[in-house]
Design brief:
By secondary structure, the chain is of the alpha/beta class. It is built from 18 helices and 15 strands. Strands 10-7-11-6-12 form a five-stranded mixed beta sheet. A four-stranded mixed beta sheet has the order 4-3-5-14. It starts with 13 loop residues before the first strand and ends with a helix.
Amino acid sequence: MNNKNSLLCLILTTTALISSCSDSNADTVTETVTTSSQTDSFYDSLNADYDGYEFTFFNPTEQFNCYIRLDFEEQTGETLDDAVYERNSLIEDKLNCTITEFQFEGDTGWGTQQQSLCTHITQMVMAGDCDYDAAYLPVSFQPGVVTGGYLTDLYTIPELQFGEEWWDNVINDSLTINGKLYTASSPLHFMSLDLAWVLLFNQDMMDELAMEYPYDLVREGKWTLDKFNEYITGVANLNGDSSFTWDSNGSAVYGIAEHTGSPTAFIYSAGNQLLERDGESFKFVGNTERMYNTVDKLRSLFNVSSGNAYQSNAAMETQSGYLYAFSVDRALFITCELKATLELRDMNSTFGLLPLPKYDESQPDYITSVNHITAFLTIPVTQPDMSRAGTILNALTYESWKSVLPIYYDVSVSQKGLRNDDSIEMLDIVRSNRGVQFSEVFGITTELSTSIQTVVNSNQDTIASTIDAGIPKVEENLKKVLEAFE
């Protein structure tokens, strides 16, 4: 934020639903968010003066169409952009510092680009430099950036007030191993919000099919995999096409447009895990009847030959993308991440939002899976002033939670992306129980998860043997990660 006018502009008073993250059964509470200029007890003890220090973030230029900007030189007129600008201006004024963002393009190509982000930081640390005070890194693409000793254990910085409600405590707890946290999530950066898996459905198509919208099922705790299957069954229709093979000029209609990477999200949302915390260690818990049954249900849901599913991982950029298929009324449902609600703003038909279904009605809560490819907050070990970094980051996180997060949900997503009050209510459920599979973030179960996705997407009756074959590699990877966290 170099060369900006230091006068702070008022952020509009916004009412937001802020969900407690203290546990998976947290109740949603309503909080009135006041303007940032008002006196706040948080700031009573914030009396540091950093003499104009330039605090620099390392951040990707772009990641999967997510909203990831951390700074703006000036206001843009976009509500969310201006809220980020105001947040930084406030903290700059409070702490006498300057917030800047270095946007790194990296190499091109899926995976290669994300790895280059991590490599850039590891090379910087190996050279003994610290060009950036904090870095947002997609560590799942190169877990060695965590296990190789390049990052700081964030719990060693007391100024980072983990446990307070402005941090994503459920996610951060899951990323904690042996009492250490090297990468964290908070509403300072919105990628972990944008990459929350959800279901969208075409309300106009449901009207034509004389179906009841599933909103009440969600409210009553009855939105399950079996109910989802009931909605999907019988929807597929060739409409004169010769097969269900995708044809952009065809007319075939599918039950669901499925992102090929979504099965692991459904498995997690159905209350399954591959690894479970066991004291100071972890144990493998993926070979259960619940897991096998979940996968069998998903094989039926995502059956390609029956037309239940059209599978793709392309978005709107081609006429073969899963988003495109949904946008032109050729799929009743779509598996996607929350960011897709904005990518579908020009869709003519009305769509609704739902959480991913439970395994069955006895499951206590709906669980929202955050895609493990998210870029999380890290601090290089070469950071010369951990206290200063912690103070600035904690203040930015607090102010983002207080004044920017409500705008993200209530304006950017709800008003611009969603189309009815029912969907906005469903959004509150989605945001209340966000979690991430730590074993995917650190690369422990990545290979096995990919194999399980293949079982689902290819409709293979091999889940038990697939899991058994993957256990040795998981145990090997787990051992390496635990050693790195000692």
